UniProtKB/TrEMBL annotation:
The keyword Cytoplasm does not apply. Belongs to the bacterial solute-binding protein SsuA/TauA family. This is ABC transporter substrate-binding protein. InterPro entries: Solute-binding_3/MltF_N. SUPFAM superfamilies: Periplasmic binding protein-like II. Keywords: Lipoprotein, Palmitate, Signal. Residues 1-23 form the signal peptide. Residues 46-281 form the Solute-binding protein family 3/N-terminal domain.
């Protein structure tokens, strides 16, 4: 994957006139800012951002494309990984500063194993397809139809937890009534279902393009099993948040918050942003980044995170969870501060950001 790197640091003069230039960007966001945040131009922060190499990260791409990171004096570098486990191992080892598309289940699994991570925001909710060979798609009408089947999942991936929890809620014993086979990457999983090694692939949104290329049929989505489930969370190491009271990470969230609006109001911009690394035609890229089952939001949505934590305990996916206070691994302060700053900096858009603040209250407090 092409690395997305912003190499130029704006001078103080450019920074002070950026609001005027942004007025014609067509993103539907007001460019008028107060002067309360001029001091942030004094320092540039550098962050390495990890994401799945299959499709990048939509909000990251839009924020990068629209210059929102530069507005916050952030110099960002995107680093692709083949799996959530690889990305989170890199985060723990200090090779990256943030993970964006490594799911919810994977960070929670790492936390249950002793990793000192902090979930500070969100990225994706829903959007993971369940796949079979085209000739087998009529076999699956309900969860009962999975009994006796070989079902492939991606190791430590959110859709796996959503699927197992849905089976348990339906009274189906996923340890006895079917065989679940875990794969390290989405590519391995697609190969398994295409070759007949598994009957069903509980897959990931990042595999959707390759699944279409292999003529695999979508028989359902993770949203169908749990309409409110979260997936990719923005995660970092707790010790990194102590520097400048997490200033760099708050700024990163501000850029993502602005990117959410652009992505929702101007989906064509999301296509252009993703094309920097997805070398495909517009229609194909659009089918990936604007897929209707994929909902993008940087809100932490901690209530759903904690719900998944409980589900992982209930189905026996993690151990020793009762000894861990998961609230200590979720940081809500940074996102709330980011929203409040945007309300002050963009007074003409404060109604929009106030709505996001209300959503934040509903989903987190």
């Amino acid at each position: 994957m092409k690395r997305l790197v912003k190499n130029n640091v704006k001078s103080a003069l450019i920074a002070l006139t950026a609001a005027v230039a942004l007025a014609g960007c067509g993103t539907g966001q007001s460019a008028e800012k107060t002067n309360s945040n001029e001091s942030k131009e004094e320092k540039t922060y550098e962050l390495k951002i990890g994401y799945g190499q299959g499709s990048g990260a939509a909000l990251f791409d839009v924020a990068d494309h629209e210059g929102f990171f530069e507005d916050e004096n952030l110099k960002v570098e995107g680093v692709g990984f083949a799996s959530s486990a690889d990305g989170l191992n890199a985060l723990e080892a200090g090779k990256i500063d943030l993970g964006m598309t490594f799911g919810t289940a994977a960070p929670l699994t790492f936390i249950s194993g002793g990793s000192n991570f902090s979930i500070i925001g969100g990225h994706l909710e829903g959007g993971h397809p369940i796949l079979v060979k085209e000739e087998n798609k009529e076999q699956y009408k309900s969860l009962e139809d999975y009994k006796g089947k070989k079902v492939g999942t991606i190791r430590m991936f959110t859709s796996d937890i959503v699927f197992r929890s849905a089976l348990a809620d339906a009274g189906i014993d996923w340890k006895k009534d079917l065989e679940i086979i875990e794969f390290k990457t989405g590519g391995d999983l697609l190969q398994a279902v295409a070759s007949g090694k598994v009957d069903v692939a509980v897959s990931a949104g990042s595999t959707y393009l390759k699944a279409k290329e292999q003529n695999l049929a979508v028989i359902g989505w993770s949203n169908d099993l749990n309409p409110t489930h979260v997936c990719c969370r923005v995660v970092t190491r707790q010790e990194l948040l102590s520097e400048d009271n997490g200033e760099a990470y708050k700024r990163f969230l501000k850029a993502l918050i602005r990117a959410e609006r652009v992505r929702n109001e101007h989906p064509e911009t999301a296509v252009e942003a993703a094309k920097t690394h997805l070398k495909l035609d517009d229609e194909t890229v659009d089918s990936i980044v604007n897929e209707e089952h994929s909902h993008y939001s940087p809100d932490p949505n901690s209530k759903e995170v904690k719900k998944m934590w409980e589900q992982m305990q209930e189905i026996g996916y993690i151990e020793n969870a009762e000894e861990i206070d998961i609230n200590k691994y979720i940081n809500l302060d940074l996102y709330e501060r980011a929203l409040n700053e945007l309300i002050k900096e963009y007074p003409e858009d404060q109604d929009y950001y106030q709505e996001l603040l209300e959503r934040f209250t509903k989903q987190n407090l």
